[in-house]
Amino acid sequence: MTSAETGSLETSAADVAGIDLRRELADTHVAEVLDGLDKELVGLAPVKTRIRQIAALLLVDRVRKRMGLASATPTLHMSFTGNPGTGKTTVALRMAEILHKLGYVRRGHLVSVTRDDLVGQYIGHTAPKTREVIKKAMGGVLFIDEAYYLYRPENERDYGQEAIEILLQVMENQRDDLVVIFAGYAERMDRFFRSNPGFRSRIAHHIDFPDYSDEELMAIAEKMLAAQSYRFDASGAKAFRDYIAARRKQPHFANARSIRNALDRMRLRQANRHFEHPGLVSLDDLMTIDAADVRASRVFEMDREEDRA
């Protein structure tokens, strides 16, 4: 019996018996990545759903190929849009893992860059910079944050267009060995794609990352504190909820990133509060963030000034 005939019998047997796709998912360990993403990130239900849908598509495509069904490799380049601190880089990391475990990229690493990593300062500088970044990313995922800065039509001497042309070529010709994810603010990304239609035609998955709600930000804060063996007492938790409401109204709010920065400053104030009051401190003291540590933030003063204005 020829190998072709053997393969045909195997396919027929599998077809009759059926394939357990959930078992396939478990065998590739993609389920572990998806479960880890659920635990790692608070909220983002639409994003997590879309990532699971992409994983299901790729898993079915993998099974189809194994059974001898003809199909083109799905287009995998993506666009992540949303405000800062909404988990885009974290999801990109997990997507690289998923692609690797399903056999769509060789290495599964993530190379994260911005315009400065790709665009040169003078003639002849951009092409080698861009190609060097692409070389590092091959076999994995290239994550380009604030990708719209690559295109600056107001500057006739800007070299970003050269990087764009190289990326477009690589995305088309090397799509079996490299996945590119573009990220940034939704409105700016939309203008970027309108100005460079070649990108939009090569991107199959556009995923929007919503801002976190106040309750989700509170859950994120408690999770960040717990990871470092801190916690709020009752007064501290109430004060931090007030902090979230006040901070959200002010400029440059960056969701989870702003929360992390705020907690770092509160830990600083907590440490100094204990130093300023000589005496013994208990384990509970060292772990607790109280209202005083929170309300000393300038955010509350700025909020009061805004209310007076």
Which terms summarize this structure?
309 residues, globular, single chain, 16 helices, two-stranded parallel ribbon, alpha/beta
SSE sequence, one letter per element: HHHHEHEHHEHEHHEHEHHHEHH
Beta-strand share of residues: 5-15%
Percentage of helical residues? 55-70%
| Structural class designation | alpha/beta
* Terminal-residue CA separation: 87 Å
- The helix count comes to 16
Low-confidence parts: 3-11
Summarize the biggest pleated sheet.
5 strands, parallel
The spatial strand order of the largest sheet comes to 2-3-4-1-5
Mean model confidence by pLDDT: 89
Overall strand count: 7
Q: Nearest-angstrom radius of gyration?
A: 24 Å
What's the shape?
A: globular
Could you walk me through the main structural features you see in this protein, from its secondary elements to its overall organization?
With 309 residues, the protein is an alpha/beta fold. The model is unreliable at 3-11 (pLDDT under 50). Helix 3 (30-40) packs antiparallel against helix 4 and helix 11 packs across helix 12 (234-248). Strand 3, helix 8 and strand 4 form a beta-alpha-beta unit. Helices cover 60% and strands 9% of the residues. It has helices spanning 3-17, 21-27, 30-40, 45-66, 88-101, 115-118, 126-137, 160-173, 186-195, 197-202, 214-227, 234-248, 255-275, 283-287, 291-295, 298-308, and strands spanning 78-82, 110-113, 141-145, 179-184, 205-209, 231-232, 288-289. It has 16 helices and seven strands. The longest helix is centred in the N-terminal third of the chain and has 22 residues, at 45-66. A five-stranded parallel β-sheet has the order 2-3-4-1-5, sandwiched between helices.
